[in-house]
Here is the input.
Amino acid sequence: MVSVVVEPLLLLVGVAAIAAAVLYTGGPKPYGYFGLGEVMVLTFFGFVATVGSAYVQVERVPSAAWWGSLVVGLLACAILLANNVRDVATDTVSGKRTLAVRLGARAARRLFAACYVGSFAAVVAMGLSQPWALLGLAALPLAAQPVRTVMTRTDPPALISALVTTSKVEIVIAVLVSAGLCLS
Here is the structure.
């Protein structure tokens, strides 16, 4: 309801987010099966959620919101990549053309690692103007295990574990960066 008071057009953003969720695997041509899942996750779980929330709260978009959208959005993409790397063989057979299928498992694994690098680089970029945001770097040691797992393992249980651990890393880094921004 706050969005209507701040900016009625934000309702359209909400409708677009709902449509994006439904059309990921639904409808006649699910975009998740055409290699667009990660782009939409970054868009909606990163930019729309983070920048939109900042705008609703302060009626402007500080630079930290843009960097923050990369911090959480790229790790959300990593979660999806861990899942899709696990499913490359079965998705290929069933005709699902996820980004991992399109790139191939090896390149998708590198993209997973790049998402982690980009997320932590965004913490550093944010820290240039908001030094306490660098608290997010305390989550860096937690990144080693899921990145190593996705880069070296092919068994589904290990990749599911990396997916779960990435979710936890995303929560930890988000809490730490948020705490840092509150202290700045």
Remarks:
- The mean pLDDT is 93.
- The two ends are 29 Å apart (CA to CA).
- The chain is about 80% helix and 0% strand.
- Residues 88 and 101 are 5 Å apart (CA to CA).
